[in-house]
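Hi Q.,

Before the meeting this afternoon, I wanted you to have the zinc ion prediction in hand. No need to reply - just skim if you have a minute. The sequence and ligand are here:
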Amino acid sequence: MSAVEGVLLGLYFTTGAIVGSFANVCIHRLPRGLSVVRPGSSCPSCGAPIAFFDNVPVVSWLLLRGRCRRCGASIPVRYVLVELLVAFLFLGAGFLYGPTFVAASAAFLAAASVILAATDLEARTLPDEVTLGTLVLGLVLAALRDRAAAVSDQGLVRFFAGSHLFEAVAGALAGALFLEGVRRVYKRLRGQEGMGEGDVKMLAMAGAFTGPAGVFLTLFFASLAGTVVAGGATLLRALHWSLEARRARASSSAALAVAARAGLLVADDGRVLSASARFREIPGAAADGMRLTADVPTAGRLLAFVRLAGTRVRRGEPAAHGRLALDDGADFFRVLAARAEATPAGLLVLLARVDVPFGVFLACGALVAFVAGRSAWDAIAGGLPWVPRLLP
Ligand SMILES: [Zn+2]
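Predicted structure with the ligand bound:
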C-alpha cells in the first residue's frame, strides 16, 4: 500500500467517524420528532451543550471515560460503537472501491442502514428523512456515475441499457411496488399489518443503490440473515437460560442476582423480589416489593404466563413461552420469550427479547447485496444479456 492510499483510507475512516457521530444524533432525535440540525449536541442528562472539543468522535468518549464533563452521567457505549461501525464501513468502502462514486454509494448506503437498523430496533420506526433522503442521494450518485462513465454522450438505446440513473430509478420503483404488494396481500390474508410503510420506503431506498436485481437480492439476503439470526439466537438463549437456571437453583441470593440480570423473581405471595431492566422497561410494570397482581395492561400476557407457570412449576412440569407480545398501543412494543424455574427464593422467570424488526435485516441484506450482488447475479443469471451496472 502506497502512502497516498494510506492517507486516502485514513480519510475514509475519519469521514466515517464524523458521519457516525451525526448518525447518533439521527438515531436519538428523529424517532422523537426533533430537528437533527438545531440545537447543537447536548447532554441528555443535564442538558449542558457539548463543546466542539468534547464532540470529537470516539476520541472524546475515551478521554472523558464515557462520562459527561459537567454532570458525570455516563454516555452509553452505543454512541462509540455506532461511530466505530460507520467508520469501519466507510473504511471498507474505500478499501474495496477506491476514490470513486461507487465507494461513496457504498458508504452512504451503509451509514443509512446503520441509522435505520438502530431506530427500528429501538423505536420501531424508519424515519422518512433517512429512507427518502438517502433514496434521493442514491439517485444523485447514480447520475454522477453516469457522468463519470460519459453514458449520456452515447445514443438513446445505449443510454438506457448502460445508465446507472435509469437502473437506480427502476430499482427504487421495483422495491416500492414489490414490497407494497406483499404488504397489501399480507394485510388482506391475515387481517393485520405484517410490515410498515417504512419497510417499503427502505427497500425503495436500497433499490436506488442496487437496482432491480439488487432489490430481490436484498430481500433474499435479508431473509437469510433473519433465519440465521433467529436460529442462532434461539440456540444461544437455550444455553444461556440453562446455565442461569442452574445458578439460580443454588441459593436465594443467587436467584435474586440471576433475576436482576435476566428476568424476574416472584415470591409465593406474588411480590416481585428482583427484576431486570427487560421487565422494568415495561410501562407501568411492578417495581421490587410490589405485587404482580397489580393491574398492568401492557404486561397482561406476561402476568398471565407467570400465574400459569407458577401452577405448572409446582406440579413439576416445564413452563416456557416463545412469543409473549407486549404492546401499550403507543410506542412500546416488545415480543418476549419466557421460561419459568422453581428456585429457593421463589419463581424465577427468565426473559429475552425475540422481536428483531424487519428493518434490521433489510439493512444487512442491502449491504450484502451491494457488495456481493454482482457475484451472486453472475452465478444465478450470468447467461442473460442484461448486466446490473449499479452493482460493482
Ligand atoms: Zn451532563
